[in-house]
């Protein structure tokens, strides 16, 4: 359960008092998520998400994320903008953490996406990239390729406690990816973490894209590669579903398009995505206290994906 910071009833009431959102009726910690503390807040007027930013979200980056959400919402995309208080402020401090009150979006995230759901979600990513073509703010990817080797070195040989030989395995895979990383592909604002749990759906329709807290300026096709790695395998990183992968590429291509150079780069970008998520999960695996109210995610599920992408360079043909 991702609740790192407890919010007292008194602090929440004082916080809500800043807004024109009605009176507090109930508040519950949200089990899903690993990065931030999230609460479901009901007032007598509406339902909201309260997020307190933890771990990897820097307070200085919040204006970028909020501007991105406003930009997408203004273009009609189903993303949840933060609510302004009576003075027009969206970023507050609550229990000592940066915090925002966010519009609640309906829908559920699917655990086992069908091809139709993957197609719709990838089309939503394509629509998002189209809408971001004129978004001018930039943010360096705090989990981009330049950070992978320092993170590998920080994890060090502790990786071998997760799986013997893991450090050397990733060291070698990363060297290959670094050496071949494509230069010159289109760069734009991207989501960078569009996993199934960050897409809200009703049946086969997308009702919301959420969790933009890794959004950044990076290779646009990398967003597609991240999505492919997250959507086409089961939770253990096994049983890749070719129909889901094909539907995802079809959905994205129909909505936005992929150049030949972007498509050709996808196998390598996907291997990079595997290293990125393996390393962040491994760091959390090694450093999350045993009593923390959060479900650690399995780093080896991304090793299995990496094995598969290395063995199947034809996956995106
Ligand atoms: N705007 C929203 N509308 C509806 N549910 C949301 C919204 N934002 C977050 N949630 C719920 O909270 C969960 C955790 O949010 P998320 O942003 O993914 O957390 P984290 O950043 O910690 O991973 C989501 O899986 C979803 O169930
Ligand atoms: N998607 C990442 C972890 C980030 O968590 P999220 O709940 O914010 O998507 C992973 O699965 O490793």
Automatic annotation (TrEMBL):
<dbReference type="GO" id="GO:0004413">
    <property type="term" value="F:homoserine kinase activity"/>
</dbReference>
<keyword id="KW-0418">Kinase</keyword>
<comment type="similarity">
    <text>Belongs to the pseudomonas-type ThrB family.</text>
</comment>
<keyword id="KW-0791">Threonine biosynthesis</keyword>
<protein>
    <recommendedName>
        <fullName>Homoserine kinase</fullName>
        <ecNumber>2.7.1.39</ecNumber>
    </recommendedName>
</protein>
<dbReference type="InterPro" id="IPR011009">
    <property type="entry name" value="Kinase-like_dom_sf"/>
</dbReference>
<keyword id="KW-0547">Nucleotide-binding</keyword>
<dbReference type="InterPro" id="IPR005280">
    <property type="entry name" value="Homoserine_kinase_II"/>
</dbReference>
<feature type="domain" description="Aminoglycoside phosphotransferase">
    <location>
        <begin position="27"/>
        <end position="254"/>
    </location>
</feature>
<dbReference type="Pfam" id="PF01636">
    <property type="entry name" value="APH"/>
</dbReference>
<keyword id="KW-0028">Amino-acid biosynthesis</keyword>
<keyword id="KW-0067">ATP-binding</keyword>
<dbReference type="InterPro" id="IPR050249">
    <property type="entry name" value="Pseudomonas-type_ThrB"/>
</dbReference>
<dbReference type="InterPro" id="IPR002575">
    <property type="entry name" value="Aminoglycoside_PTrfase"/>
</dbReference>
<keyword id="KW-0808">Transferase</keyword>
<comment type="pathway">
    <text>Amino-acid biosynthesis; L-threonine biosynthesis; L-threonine from L-aspartate: step 4/5.</text>
</comment>
